[in-house]
Design brief:
mainly alpha; about 450 residues; two-stranded antiparallel sheet; Helix Hairpins; about 70% helix
């Protein structure tokens, strides 16, 4: 008994520390506490409270949706201000005037707000990653791909026209008559060089890259991502809820509406960019009506050749329009093919009626074969008219050919109809029949 008590005492004592986390020093007990984080670092409620993870995750998703909507609205506002500024100057106000500086200031202010919203969105995304993976250190989420993606987004969203801040011509008076200088593509003063005009043109066109935020807004506001049913079933089937999956769902549910919205928006954007590129050359494609016509015939891959771009920028716009036109035409053909295709029930009805009709034709063809055989036999017995004999021989051969052709056609229709049988239903029926046979075989009552 004494040896057993000593062994029990030694089992509970390991290096002066017992199993309950206490250390014995000369009969005194001291509590040992192991910190879960670094010294001097306090755990936030999101990192420390596992009971509130679902609630915090829901709040972070709502914040991401709100920030994405605000970012998309700010990006569209900047693009609209840029288009308004390019159309009003120098027709309404002079380059370098207070109006030009004000609109450019608003464009720069919207760009700064957009950058702040992008940073806030990725901050919420990192916090959501920490909650999903139950991590403490935020630096774990900063992978090389994430850092590269954030940097690329900030660079794309920071692009906007800035040449007016470099050497603005402040000689124009506030109430003076604006110069009808339509040879410059943008609102720049005459002191700027041709290279600066090209750079400003490129920066204005690249502002349309901010529209990449549309796919993020569609993803975050789609019912596919918000539905718990979709997410639970998708997680069981290893489905990644990305923009590609949401786009496939939209194309399956609303194909005509989705393609129409995309094509109309692309036509207007590409036509305005072509007009912006071409109006510096004082050519006919510098007008909006001609630009719309050129973009339409290029998008539809018609290319009448009546108008053509003259600048390098315009040629690039038309080249990109042609590529997008081929892609949209392929999608349109796929959508129309799917809409015009028969479903399973319609195919069953259609092939059933075709089989009935061809069966009637086969019976008529068999009757023709029998009739020609009888007529040929009758002319053979009489042996009077050899011409009539040859005529009935030709008719018999033709009737046999028609009969064989119809039988082959019926066989093809039935083979195609047999391929449409639901294989899963057949397998379930076979499994059910086998199960019933097994139960009947091993049942004590054979009449069950």
């Amino acid at each position: 008994m004494e040896m057993t008590a000593r062994l029990a005492h030694l089992d509970t004592k390991v290096d002066g520390r017992n199993c309950d986390g206490f250390v014995n020093h000369n009969g005194e007990t001291t509590e040992i506490r192991v910190p879960l984080s670094h010294t001097g670092k306090r755990l936030s409620p999101i990192e420390g409270g596992n009971l509130y993870r679902l609630r915090d995750r829901k709040f972070l998703l709502e914040d991401k949706k709100r920030l994405c909507a605000w970012a998309l609205g700010t990006a569209l506002l900047g693009i609209l201000l840029m288009v308004l500024h390019a159309e009003l100057c120098p027709v309404v106000y002079q380059p370098g005037s207070i109006y030009a500086l004000s609109i450019n200031g608003l464009i720069s202010f919207s760009t700064g707000c957009l950058l702040i919203l992008i940073i806030a969105f990725h901050y919420k995304d990192i916090r959501l990653f920490i909650i999903d993976h139950n991590q403490v250190d935020w630096r774990i989420a900063m992978t090389s791909n994430r850092v590269l993606g954030i940097s690329l987004e900030l660079i794309v969203c920071a692009i906007h026209p800035v040449a007016i801040y470099l050497r603005p011509d402040m000689g124009g008076r506030l109430g003076g008559k604006p110069e009808q200088n339509s040879s410059t593509p943008l609102c720049l003063s005459s002191s700027h060089k041709e290279v600066m005009l090209d750079v400003e043109l490129l920066l204005s066109a690249l502002m349309f890259l901010r529209l990449y935020l549309v796919h993020r807004a569609v993803l975050l506001h789609s019912k596919v991502l918000l539905s718990a049913s979709y997410r639970s079933i998708g997680s069981l089937n290893n489905i990644n809820f990305s923009f590609r999956f949401v786009l496939k769902v939209l194309m399956n549910k609303y194909p005509a509406r989705t393609l129409l919205v995309f094509i109309m928006f692309f036509w207007l954007s590409a036509a305005w960019m072509l007009r912006l590129c071409e109006r510096q050359k004082q050519v006919e494609t510098g007008g909006m009506d001609t630009a719309l016509w050129l973009i339409a015939i290029t998008f539809l891959t018609v290319g009448y050749g009546d108008v053509s771009p003259h600048t390098s920028c315009g040629k690039l716009v038309c080249l990109f329009t042609g590529v997008m036109g081929v892609a949209c035409t392929a999608m349109l053909v796929a959508v129309m093919t799917k809409k015009l295709a028969l479903n399973k029930g319609e195919k069953h009805v259609h092939f059933f009626m075709m089989d009935i009709q061809i069966s009637k034709r086969i019976r008529h063809a068999a009757a023709d074969v029998l009739r020609e055989c009888w007529l040929l036999h009758r002319t053979t017995q009489t042996k009077d008219n050899s011409g009539e004999h040859r005529h009935h021989q030709r008719c018999l051969l033709e009737a046999i050919r028609v009969f064989r052709h119809l039988r082959l056609k019926q066989r093809k229709i039935r083979d195609y109809a047999s391929e449409m049988v639901d294989l899963s239903k057949v397998s379930q029926d076979i499994h059910r029949t086998g199960l019933f046979t097994l139960i009947k075989r091993h049942s004590p009552n054979p009449d069950i």
